[in-house]
């Protein structure tokens, strides 16, 4: 039996075997009723911190809501429709807490749509509009 993709905090396209539906696996996990917010970082290729031009979609689920954050270079972006007004904690693959910026939280169906689009295009999802996220340092102000 293979380990579900959802048990990997950092995902890239080549990790996803042909015929495996990442969105369906995330939906199945969430539909079972998560007790803590889960998150993952997804990129076209293995995350390389030296590659400043590599886009990374961080996404998460927490029952009826989820989060989206697009990272490129040193900039981060959140949906313009995001609802959380404070920093929050989601857990990478359900294990290690990661800080999620304000306004990253959206309806979970929006998360599913954005992940599906990114997997198809390899580009920042256009099914949501984006704005610059709060800086990491702002959580300490």
UniProtKB/TrEMBL annotation:
Pfam families: Imm1 (PF14430). This is Immunity protein Imm1. The lineage of its organism: Bacteria, Bacillati, Actinomycetota, Actinomycetes, Pseudonocardiales.
């Amino acid at each position: 039996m293979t380990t579900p993709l959802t048990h990997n905090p950092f995902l890239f396209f080549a990790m996803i075997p042909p015929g495996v539906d990442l969105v369906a696996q995330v939906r199945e996990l969430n539909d079972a009723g998560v007790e803590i917010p889960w998150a993952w970082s997804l990129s076209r290729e293995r995350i390389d911190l030296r590659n400043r031009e590599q886009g990374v979609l961080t996404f998460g689920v927490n029952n009826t809501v989820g989060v989206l954050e697009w990272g490129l270079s040193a900039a981060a972006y959140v949906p313009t429709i995001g609802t959380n007004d404070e920093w929050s904690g989601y857990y990478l693959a359900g294990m290690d807490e990661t800080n999620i910026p304000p306004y990253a939280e959206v309806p979970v169906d929006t998360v599913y749509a954005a992940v599906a689009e990114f997997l198809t295009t390899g580009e920042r999802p256009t099914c949501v509009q984006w704005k610059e996220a709060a800086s990491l340092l702002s959580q300490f102000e």
